[in-house]
Specification:
Layout (H helix, E strand, L loop, with lengths): L1 H27 L9 H17 L11 E4 L2 E13 L2 E8 L10 E5 L11 H7 L4 E7 L14 H15 L3 E6 L3 H13 L8 E5 L11 H8 L2 H8 L1 E2 L10 E3 L1 H11 L1 H17 L4 H11 L5 E2 H13 L2 H4 L3 E2 L2 E2 L9 E7 L12 H5 L8 E6 L11 H17 L17 E2 L1
Parallel strand pairs: 4-5, 4-6, 6-7, 7-13, 13-14
Antiparallel strand pairs: 1-2, 2-3, 3-5, 8-9, 9-10, 11-12, 14-15
Helix pairs in contact: 1-2, 2-9, 3-14, 4-5
Amino acid sequence: MFYQLYELNHAAMAPFRAAADIMRFAYANPLNPFSHTPLGRTMAASLEMFERTTRRYGKPEFGLTQTTIGDQTVFVREEVVWSRPFCNLLHFARSVPAARGNDPRILIVAPMSGHYATLLRGTVEALLPSADIYITDWIDARMVPMTEGRFDFDDYVDYVIEMLHFLGQDTHVIAVCQPSVPVLAAAAVMEEANDPLAPSSMTLMGGPIDTRINPTAVNKLAQERSLQWFSDNVIMNVPWPQPGFMRPVYPGFLQLSGFMSMNLDRHLVAHKEFFMHLVKNDGEPEKHRDFYDEYLAVMDLTAEFYLQTVEQVFMKHSLPKGELMHRGKRVDPAAIRKVALLTVEGENDDISGVGQTKAAQTICVNIPEDMRMHYLQPDVGHYGVFNGSRFRREIAPRIINFVREHSRSAVKPPVPRVIKGGRTA
């Protein structure tokens, strides 16, 4: 009943949250003389803190309406081009001049691990000037009726394969964090079947390919607990009146509590500084609002997908051991021969330890040496592998270079300059 109690508490707090929001506007209104005093600003800051810590954060928007190609600003239109019960495929269609030719087509597989695909807004934004971008927009499991059936690890792999079939030949795929395992599995399944629509390249970023290497706190937790413990303690049924009523899920609010507890001191300091900025009225709080509006927006995962991922990836290490199964057949990474492989890691990653993603280079034994590369980015954690200034300056150009180098198209545009930094192997 824990999920039901959480929903009841949220509903019970609604009138207090609404009252706090109204009072905050009154205290912060510049026409109110009290708003120009330290006490008035303190009241307004306290009310905003209450409202923000008790609200449910909805799914954010990408909000990418334009990009710059060369010295020209072009419009971007976001559209759903493929849809299934648990995922929409978004296309960021750019109004590029016909004379430019075709940029590489890239499918970004966003993690299905609690946050929405908008967490990769910075990833998309950095790649848009140089590529035709598609991204998986996973749907909150609490919003999917039970009549739509289950969604497990096999379904995830099938979705990736279906999207690659939809996009056609010479598509490149980027997996960020969790989807590194199912994306590699999808490539192996397609290569073993001699599928002509297998991706031209795959880029795996901060992914748990082999969590036996440099295990992090997340990896150790999975080793210390049994699968039954996870099933008993974190799996709950979606409460009424949500569309997914009675669907077994790993709730987003539980995932968020886990995320927050890993760096609780950092979050407490950030909120304290946010409060002080509000009191001082120095214009700094907007960065805090933007970050936490994204970070605190979470989604439920289907129980079957979550438990299978915990068991196969973090407990049994099935992929690096050669024991991962898809639809009753063993997934063979050695079958990958024509898909170029780029692995990217962050030196300070506390989610996927250094070496866990690089392990893909070891298990994909039949990819030619001139079709593989590994890059370790210094001074970044997990988030910095796919977002932030170092990603834009050092990682994104390397991805574009790699993609263009291994494109199967006849014409390859000139590659952008890469700022020196990090280590490439």
